[in-house]
Amino acid sequence: MVKRRQSISTRIIISFVGFYLVTCIWSFAKLSKDGDSNSCHHNNDPTQSLTGQPHRDWLQRRRSLQDQKTTKSYNFTAALCVCVKDAEAYFEEFIDYHLAMGFSNVYLYDDSPNFELQRWYNHTRAHPDYSKVEVLHLSDARNPKGSSSSSNEEESNDDDDNQQSQNNQQQQQMLPVDPQTDYYEDCVHRFGFNGPKHDYFAFIDVDEFFVFVDESNYHNILDLLQDYLVPFGGALTVNWMLVGSANKSVYAPLPITKRFQYRDEKAHFVIKSIVKTSDYLGHRNPHAVYVRDVVVNGTNTSNIHTTAYPGANHKYALTPRGATDKTCPSKVVLLYHYRYTSDKEYIFKRCTRGGTDGGHYWCSDGGQGIRQGYGPQHIQSIPGSVFDDKAWKFLTSHVPKYQMYDSFEDFH
Ligand SMILES: *[C@@H]1O[C@H](CO)[C@@H](O)[C@H](O)[C@H]1NC(C)=O
Ligand SMILES: *[C@@H]1O[C@H](CO)[C@@H](O)[C@H](O)[C@H]1NC(C)=O
Ligand SMILES: *[C@@H]1O[C@H](CO)[C@@H](O)[C@H](O)[C@H]1NC(C)=O
Ligand SMILES: *[C@@H]1O[C@H](CO)[C@@H](O)[C@H](O)[C@H]1NC(C)=O
Ligand SMILES: *[C@@H]1O[C@H](CO)[C@@H](O)[C@H](O)[C@H]1NC(C)=O
């Protein structure tokens, strides 16, 4: 009897050890797999390597976060500065999503000639969430240049880092001054240096959503900033992930993160920036900022970082526009860019609404379609090849009212 009991407990111990070993091997295999994935152009980028300090830090963080899923309270705040036009179909979803992620306020600059969002603004002042959204008209901006413009990065070729540097300089001189950067600068002055004095700002568009690559590591932007920006100051860059049309042909009244769940295989080299207010000097373009240098060993050094590992330098900060990162750090966070949506919406955005000067630049005659084989790769609509519902999962778990949309079918 005694012997039999011993053998049962021995078996239990053996199965525990066995389970533990299997778990370790599985985790290790998973880490190795994560480690060699997703570098856009440079497979031999040392920052992507799994050896050395960054890797150990990463492992440590993974372990510690398993015990600690609740969001800590921080003595700093982060806000969003966004320029919008014709965005009413999706902008409440954009707001719900990013407030749930820990951004404390959203500053929307309405680029419509007649301040179309004023009524929405007036009606939401007592709303528990939307009262955190300040809406300003274009004419409120500190330094408005030109009367109306939705021009942004899409008017220019973001891949200018591939060109000869001489070409670049010429190109840069020809590029129009981008009015969008005035709104951004106004935003930081009004709500960072003054007003509520937010400590950090992200500058994105309403069709861009931050997505944590592994939500068991991060689900709050403040946790991410605490690890990747607060200790270093300056700015942090986040690469795009292009989300495709999923072959949708027209608009349907469903959330954007539900309708479009097919993305590119790998991150895109274009970046957007999150900046520390006290280090902010201005915008270079909608993607990149100027921040105060840090002095390292007596040399002024760019203080722009990436999420390759905490403190990683943004090597492309010194390129003519600083708008790319071709190492595409993809382990922590990416900016999912719902650039295309349905075919009809995309043609409207590109060709009907257009931009200021070169608004119809990428469009075929008559504005009925996008010119093929012309312009940067990301101008052509893609259906998307990899199923990925992380953004939708994030939204439905943090803002449960969206779950009802799962009972709708989408035939378009
Ligand atoms: C926030 O707290 C940290 C210590 O946790 C401190 O070093 C820092 O100065 C504080 N920042 C502000 C803005 O109070
Ligand atoms: C919004 O409120 C402002 C201030 O009360 C008022 O001047 C404006 O006409 C209102 N706009 C709309 C569209 O209701
Ligand atoms: C889009 O359509 C193409 C051609 O029919 C098909 O190969 C592809 O799998 C579709 N993609 C999605 C995300 O539906
Ligand atoms: C600064 O100088 C020290 C001593 O020469 C050196 O060990 C260190 O690597 C340098 N740091 C950087 C970032 O170059
Ligand atoms: C670093 O930049 C600051 C401000 O532009 C300048 O005053 C300082 O002389 C520079 N220091 C070095 C070592 O280049």
From TrEMBL:
Keywords: Membrane, Transmembrane, Transmembrane helix. This is Glycosyltransferase family 92 protein. Residues 163-173 have a biased composition (Low complexity). It is a single-pass membrane protein. GO terms for molecular function: glycosyltransferase activity. GO terms for cellular component: cytoplasm; membrane. Residues 141-176 are annotated as: Disordered. It comes from the Eukaryota. Residues 152-162 have a biased composition (Acidic residues).
